[in-house]
Amino acid sequence: MSKLLPASAIGQSLERLDGGLKVTGRAPYAYEQPVENPVHLYPVLSTIARGRVVRVETAAAEALDGVLTVLTSETAPSLADTSDRELAVLQDTGVGYRGCIVAAVLAETPEIAREAATMVSVTYAEEPFHAHLRADDPALYAPEELNAGTPTDSSQGDADAAFETAALRVEATYSTPAEHNNPMEPHTTVAQWDGHLLTLWDSTQGVHAVKGTLAQVLGLEQDQIRVIAPHVGGGFGSKGMPHVHVVMAALAAQCTEGRPVKFPVSRQQMYSLTSHRTPTVAHIRLGAADDGRLAAMSLDVREHTSRIKEFAEQTPAPFRMMYACPNRRTTTRLAPLDIPVPSWMRAPGECPGMFGPEVAMDELAAAAGLDPIELRRRNEPHVDPETGKPFSSRHLLECFDLGAERFGWENRVTRPRSVAEDGWLVGMGTASAVYPFMRQPANTARISYEQDGIYSVQIGAADIGTGSWTSLAQIAADALRVPMDRIRLGIGDTRFPPASVAGGSSGTASWGGTIVAAARIFRADHGEHPSPGAQTEARPPDDPEAQGLALYSFGAHFAEVRFSADTGEIRVSRMLGVFSAGRIINPRTARSQFLGGMTMGLGMALHEQSLLDPRFGIFVNHDLAEYHVPTNADVLDMEALWIEDRDEHAGPLGARGIGEIGIVGSAAAIANAAYNASGIRVRDLPLTPDKFLV
């Protein structure tokens, strides 16, 4: 398709502008950045879960030809700020979890560095540790707040009393396991320090986030750091904030006399160094009248966190606003463990937080003798149940209606275990999806008119595989009313104006809205025929009206599964997602995002679980041979649709986020379909065969 388009570039199903570079291997990722005479770093990781380092013997490693030095807590440069214990690498002898960095080898080649690391001998003073999440852990505590500023607990009415008097009651415990993000491109940082300027080529979801954090930790001025990330091979949240490897590379660069340091985190090392999704144990109670209308809802969540740094997943967030109910209560408690630090993974909070409630809704529908979609229809709220604010847009029921028609929902048999085809029992299930729209105001865009008639549009955003190179160019062309070939986009560099992280399904709408604001000012100041050198730098205006509204995207998932009564195996034969996510900028890349989220939901339902051995405090299935994700053979008939929904309250584009809603609720739809096929209700993910052989 030609890149020469009319000014209405938004809505065009364009191929990715960077696609050719990527499929031919010409798009440089962090490790591939051309730097001269690099030094290679390989870390030595702790083999205990808690304690302190008594002695590090480095002589044998340093005697190896090609080894430059071995950094330890005695030889590493000091940090200016060690308050973040995850980032305080080699600053003391403490060991907070198994797999933390206790030394780092710098060598001429990656092979020499890796071999030398095996020759470093570390002696520990081990201390008692705890690495097992228990719902009755006596150390459980209430954090001050949850991720994204979400309140820890909430209460409306009297949920306990209303539950006890309800005609229909569902009470059960549901669990989701720890999971790891596993982007295709492992985390990598290349760092170079020239005595004044620290340059980082980093695989990150936010170059300005890395710059801000490193400036504080290292005690540098903002203008002493440049972060570059033009192409990023996925992140799913794990690259949304700097982890310890970035600081380690920067520290090492101070010891190499100007030579750049390359630190690629191996796949196995990622399981301790670059975060994971916390497991959840959710006790849920739903009470309803005979007609299925909810009278009581309660959710009590237990999660783990690292003892050295707190992270509290906002698991109860969707439960608080999804359905109308006069009496509701949620609580969250954390168990502090001696484990690696958890953090963001695609749709933190909403993803694990919608599994238990949406399966419980399916159980309530069965108890009420109602179709699961009809149950949701009867509990559709007119305003946000948590805040009382009107929804800016809520088309959940339209998503269910369209999905039911396209999926053939009328063919679903109510009685479980009653449809058989070719030796398999067949069932259908559904679940809701929701994700908040979080427009990020702290963005600035720069627009310049160049000598060659090109509009240079610069913003320090990131493309982590979502298509930002293309969608932002479309938005700029539309806002400036010029063809796409007159836009030169610049992203992924802190030399461009500051931009928020590519996360929270906020990137395209927030950055794009900023570009629109800058374009409007540029056109007002310089007209249709600007002079070369004309430039505008602007931030989007505030929208006080949006403060009084609840901004969310919604969706409906449908799944068909096949169940083997002999082996307990579950196979997902069909999936359909229907979404209402505001204006769609590029249907091609949007569909890719929806399907990508649904595929991760498929993995969450059937495969993914990070197994933590409590005897050693280590994730034992720490590679892609044993941590299973969906492959082509698992992803069969999968379709994503959307409802046209331009949300005027979501900013000048009318767009909300699409990156995460595809995963929210998809695992619950599969679990509900598995029950419809097998007659066995499994409330603990993943849906492995052993759980059906009862």
How far apart lie the N and C ends? 55 Å
Spatial ordering of strands, largest sheet: 3-5-1-12-9-10-11
In terms of quaternary structure, what is this? single chain
Major sheet characteristics: 7 strands, mixed
What's the CATH C level of the largest domain? Alpha Beta
Gyration radius over CA: 26 Å
Measured as a percent range, the helix fraction is: 10-25%
- Give me the CATH fold name of the largest domain: Aldehyde Oxidoreductase, domain 4
Strand residue content? 15-25%
Total tally of structural domains = 3
**Count of helical regions:** 16
Instruction: State mean pLDDT (0 to 100 scale).
Output: 96
Helix-strand category: alpha+beta
The CATH superfamily name of the largest domain is Aldehyde oxidase/xanthine dehydrogenase, molybdopterin binding domain
Low-pLDDT sequence parts = 1-5
Tell me the number of strands. Answer: 26
- Second-tier CATH architecture of the largest domain: 2-Layer Sandwich
The outline comes out as: globular
Notable characteristics:
single chain, 694 residues, alpha+beta, Aldehyde Oxidoreductase, domain 4, seven-stranded mixed β-sheet, five-stranded mixed β-sheet, 16 helices, 23% helix, 23% strand, disordered N terminus
Account of the 3D structure:
Mean pLDDT is 96; it is low at 1-5. With 694 residues, the protein is of the alpha+beta class. It has 3 domains: 19-30 and 440-542, 2-Layer Sandwich (Aldehyde Oxidoreductase, domain 4), CATH 3.30.365; 37-128 and 182-273, Aldehyde Oxidoreductase, domain 4 (2-Layer Sandwich), CATH 3.30.365; 147-179 and 277-438 and 548-691, Aldehyde Oxidoreductase, domain 4. Helices cover 23% and strands 23% of the residues. The protein is globular and about 75 Å long. It has 16 helices and 26 strands. The chain has a 7-stranded mixed sheet with strand order 3-5-1-12-9-10-11. Strands 7-15-14-13-8 form a 5-stranded mixed sheet.
